[in-house]
Amino acid sequence: MDIAAYISELQQVLAGLPAEPIAAMMDIIQRARLEGRTIFIVGNGGSASTASHFACDLGKNTVVPGVPRFRVMALTDNMEVFSAYANDLGYENVFAEQLASFLHAGDVIIAISTSGNSPNVLRAAEFGRMAGATTIGWTGRSGGRLAGLVDLLIQVPSDRIEQVENAHLALHHLVTIRMRELGRASAASALQSA
Q1: Of 51, 105, 177, 189, which residue is 20 to 30 A from 98 by alpha carbon distance?
Q2: Which of these, 120, 148, 119, 152, lies nearest to 135 by C-alpha position?
Q3: Strand pairing of 38-42 and 71-74?
Q4: What order do you get walking across the sheet with 71-74 strand by strand?
Q5: pLDDT tens per residue, the chain (194 residues)?
Q6: The whole model's pTM is what?
C-alpha cells in the first residue's frame, strides 16, 4: 500500500465513525466521572497499548481544579498480576479476575478488541454485565461476539486491523479532549455561580 492510499483509507475510516454511539459513550463517561465511578479499560496487543494510553490521558489530561477527577484503570498495566492470572487460571481470565477484585455496580468497562472475539475481553464484558457495570465495546466492522455482550458498541468501519487501531487511538483522544472541555466548562460555570 502506498502512502497516499493509506492516508486516503484512514480518512474514509475516520469519516465513517458512528457519531451517535460516540456521543452516548461520552455521556456515560462524563456521568461516571461525576458519580465517582471507576472506568476499567481492557484490550490485547495494540489494543492493550490503546487501553493504557487512554487510561493515562483520561486520568491526567482531564484534570481541572474543582472538578472530580476520573477514576480510571487499564487492566493491562500490572504485568505481575496479569501474568499470575494467565499462568494460574488461563489467559482468558486475566481481566475478569482483576475485575472481581475492584468492580462495583455502576462502574464502566471499555472493552477494546479489533475482532470483537478476544476471549479475555469477552469474559471481562460478561463479568461486567453480571456485576451491574455499564459495558462499552470498541471493535472493527464485524463487531464479533463482543457486539452481543455490551450495552454500547462503537464499530470502526474497517476490517483492516491497523486502521481499526488507528481509529481507536483517535477515538480515545477525542474522548479525552471532550472530557477536558466539559471539565473546564463545569469549572467556569461554578465560578460564575459563586
Answers
A1: 177
A2: 152
A3: parallel
A4: 71-74, 38-42, 108-112, 134-139, 152-155
A5: 799 999 999 999 999 999 999 999 999 999 999 999 999 999 999 999 999 999 999 999 999 999 999 999 999 999 999 999 999 999 999 999 999 999 999 999 999 999 999 999 999 999 999 999 999 999 998 999 999 999 999 999 999 999 999 999 999 999 999 999 999 998 887 767 76
A6: 0.96
